[in-house]
């Protein structure tokens, strides 16, 4: 039975959409008809699509992770049978929701990924949403951001740890800001979140797409790459929200405990992000230090010594 006939009896409804191309392979049906089997990904998940190469040849070279626009019908099997497959044009990409085409399939911590997308899409500032898209959806960086550890042998040292740590810093920074400055404008709260989220974005230059350290990891501190990683987005903010662009530059060059810039903090946002960074790292390290130790007392992780007090039964509840 031909694959095309098999699908024709399962057609349910038409569809169209713009996705990231994350996989493809040529397959043949029983009649030796060639099909291109595609994996189309976005922030919600993946779709498997089939393209009959005898009827719809691929019009141009389309690379891994490029945006593609597809049209066809969805079958009962969940697969798509395509009659259109092409590179997406800029207008189609711009029409996507914030981080819509970020491929969920590449993130080993899906709950953190879903939180990232939900918060990014909830930002009221169109300019900050556009900024995040320009930074995080860069084709050459997004896999590293989703797969990299928070550190090599320190805190959040597991695939997806960078995203987990970044969200913790962002959320905790905003919590401190709201606690201490409850009347601060929403725009500054959102800038605080974005600043915390991207404080370690330079690590996408020191890890490869699989989350493994590369040459830059040995040669450069990740801090020196932060502004470079955000340059495309900052250029946009300079034209639309210049003071927010300068705010982000400031917190990233003075807030990190390991930063080499040495500029003193001139605003509370920088302190909140610095403190949230240290708290997230220490909390994860303390948890790791006592992971294999049920009793309280002292435990060591690398060069760091941690202590947990012994509590009475009544005090522990």
TrEMBL record:
Please state every residue range assigned to the domain named HD/PDEase. 158-291
**A Pfam family reported for this protein in Swiss-Prot or TrEMBL:** TraI_2
The record's SUPFAM superfamilies line, in alphabetical order, gives: HD-domain/PDEase-like
Protein name in the entry: HD/PDEase domain-containing protein
């Amino acid at each position: 039975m031909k694959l095309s006939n098999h699908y024709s009896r399962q057609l349910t409804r038409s569809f169209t959409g713009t996705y990231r191309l994350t996989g493809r392979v040529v397959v043949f049906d029983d009649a030796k008809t060639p099909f291109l089997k595609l994996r189309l990904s976005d922030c919600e998940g993946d779709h498997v699509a089939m393209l009959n190469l005898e009827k719809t040849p691929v019009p141009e070279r389309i690379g891994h992770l490029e945006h593609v626009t597809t049209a066809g019908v969805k079958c009962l099997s969940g697969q798509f049978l395509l009659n259109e497959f092409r590179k997406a044009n800029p207008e189609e990409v711009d029409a996507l929701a914030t981080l819509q085409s970020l491929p969920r399939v590449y993130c080993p911590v899906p709950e953190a990924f879903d939180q990232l997308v939900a918060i990014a899409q909830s930002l009221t500032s169109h300019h900050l949403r556009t900024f995040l898209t320009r930074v995080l959806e860069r084709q050459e960086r997004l896999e590293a951001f989703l797969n990299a550890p928070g550190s090599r042998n320190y805190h959040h040292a597991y695939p997806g740890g960078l995203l987990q740590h970044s969200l913790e810093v962002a959320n905790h920074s905003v919590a401190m800001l709201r606690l201490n400055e409850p009347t601060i404008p929403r725009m500054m709260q959102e800038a605080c979140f974005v600043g915390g989220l991207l404080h370690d974005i330079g690590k996408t230059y020191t890890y490869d797409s699989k989350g493994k350290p590369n040459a830059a990891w040995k040669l450069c501190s990740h801090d020196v790459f932060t502004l470079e990683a955000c340059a495309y987005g900052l250029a946009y903010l300079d034209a639309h929200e210049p003071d927010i662009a300068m705010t982000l530059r400031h917190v990233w060059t003075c807030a990190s405990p390991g930063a080499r810039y040495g500029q003193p903090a001139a605003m509370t946002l920088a302190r909140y992000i610095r403190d949230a960074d240290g708290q997230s790292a220490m909390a994860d390290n303390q948890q790791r230090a006592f992971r294999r130790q049920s009793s309280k007392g002292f435990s060591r992780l690398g060069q760091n010594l941690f202590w947990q007090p012994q509590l009475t039964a009544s005090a522990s509840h």
